[in-house]
């Protein structure tokens, strides 16, 4: 079977929520890694509403770092956990949300990550997140998929670190121009899906949604990768 894994920085739902729901639905994701999900006030209700707008459910338990993993009906959640990453004085607290999912016999450990604007923090958190993902994947005999807002480009250190350990899905099977930021006039690819090198990447790129919705839903564009599981 194939599975669609997407990532989307939803900008705290501060833009057009109806447009956001339509874009998330258009992503057709079996697993959606979200950044800047609601994390204050009635954050659980906000995340549940965000997921429901695309026919998904919230799989991960905590609000740390504004990251979450949402899942659809074609996958079964086996395990979920959230981690606070190392704090840096004066910088926003970052986190990693992980869901272990099964789809027709194949097991994936999927992580949602939002790296900092500060380069040293990005590099540290990328390494910390990979170490966590490797431990979770080993416990469940799962293949790793790590996706999120990397806040840097492919030639920079944290991205290169992640791409050295996992496959940058867009680089393997690009679809479209790959640019993700800013949404209204994209000029940089700073959001990505990385997958275990043994995964078969069929395609990776943007989401087929109206331009007005893409520009109005968030300041980022989503990225969706289609992977083939099994043989």
From TrEMBL:
Domain of life: Bacteria
Signal sequence residues: none
UniProt KW Zinc keyword: no
GO molecular function annotations of the record: endonuclease activity; exonuclease activity; metal ion binding
UniProt keyword terms in alphabetical order: DNA damage, DNA repair, Endonuclease, Exonuclease, Hydrolase, Magnesium, Metal-binding, Nuclease
Chain ranges of the Endonuclease/exonuclease/phosphatase domain: 6-220
GO terms under biological process: DNA repair
InterPro entries hit by this protein: Endo/exonu/phosph_ase_sf, Endo/exonuclease/phosphatase, TDP2-like
SUPFAM superfamilies for the chain: DNase I-like
Swiss-Prot/TrEMBL cofactor(s): Mg(2+); Mn(2+)
Record-given protein name: Endonuclease/exonuclease/phosphatase family metal-dependent hydrolase
